Amino acid sequence: MNNDVNLDRVWLGVAAEVWRRRPGPVERAAACLLRSPGLARALVTTPSLLLGWTVATVVAVAAGLAATLTTGTAYVPLVAPAVAGVGIAYAYGPGMDPAWELAGSMPVSDRMVLLVRALAVFGLNAVLGLVASAASGAVAALTFGWLVPMAAVCALALAAATLSRSANVGAAAGLAGWAMTVLGGRVATGSMVAAATASSLVVPYLLGAAACGVIAWYAARIPRRTS
Amino acid sequence: MNVELDDLTRRFGRTHAVDGVSLQAGPGVFGLLGPNGAGKTSLLRMMATVLPPTSGRMRLLGRDPADHAPRREIRRRLGYLPQTLGYYPGFTVVEFVEYFALLKEMPPGQVPRAVAAAVERVGLGEKARAKLRTLSGGMLRRVGIAQAIVNDPDLLLLDEPTAGLDPEQRMDFRALLRDVGQRATVVVSTHLVEDVGAVCDDVALINAGKIVFHGSPAELTARGEESGAAGDSALERGYSAVLAATRSAAAARS
What we know:
heterodimer, A: 227 residues, mainly alpha, 12 helices, 73% helix, B: 254 residues, alpha/beta, Rossmann fold, 2 domains, 6-stranded mixed sheet, 3-stranded antiparallel sheet, 9 strands
């Protein structure tokens, strides 16, 4: 009989089993899709995808739906881009994410973390907006038309947040940009939803989204200052 | 040599946070001493590949971190404890350490055991499943140390690691540093000279971004004895003597 049992090693094996965290189905699916358990873990810890934030997003979009149904004015296309822009701004960054400083020293690129989180927040908000928009019985143009402005608002918020290293600045830029566009559309056409439905704006939105996306991607490379 | 720095400089606008630093460090514990704002954190952040240098050359673990593939390999073998460690209040100790083990691209099958080992090593086994929001400052610091050592790093960079630790925890931590330093390079930035005296084989004193002393703790102590500078311990007197000499030389130049 071997009396030289290393109790420390045995305990570590036990502790590893007892303390082991079982990833949920979303994280497992993301790990397969992204081919990186670290990236998947970073994705499911996105501040603006956590339960409280998601509930708040659902409530905001539901309020837009209720306003649409009661007033007859399509508020969902106005609310969805604003909510998504704020969510994107708060997806990743200093002050929002404790991993931000450390992530800079990790082999999993923080730009990849930023990218997958931004895409996930955009995707969730797009699905919620589409469901609400469809439930409001809006015409097809209204159901899908706001996805392009939403992309532009999200890109603007992301670029501003990344450049300024501040989620608050990003959210404010996204909201202010969208508010000015909506008000400008109303002044020009008299319609509250012109900013989401005018086909003439699609190209400017796409160009704006592309430009802001490039700015955000570049700004993520800018060296971080010491605090 | 695991760390090779050659004329490394980091500027922020007109400020030279790090000014022409050249250093080499192999396995062992290397202490970075200096007053607040001397440039220790900027130097450590460059070594952690978080902050690129403005100029100069740097090789870590025999690789150039300026290139993507070598940088990624360095980061896999790196442990880093920043001066200010943010944390997810809703995470448990194990979840937090595991998160960084995954971000360090450790093989998923090895992660649970490595996490358990790191948590036990910093003496937090009893708090393994406690939420971070319930822990004291000293315990959170130990959680930060656990995430830094979870991948058994070849290069361990610690910025003010003993801040918030009580005397008993500091003794345990020094034992951990000695142990890790047997095979890895450990760079400890601190302004607590007693930590340096207790564990470091080699020490550099940095002031205004420049290395003003590089040698063993015994050599630093000798500087104090020669000058008769003020201080509660021999090492503190050496620290004060070097800083005083540097400042008077700078004043004479200007």
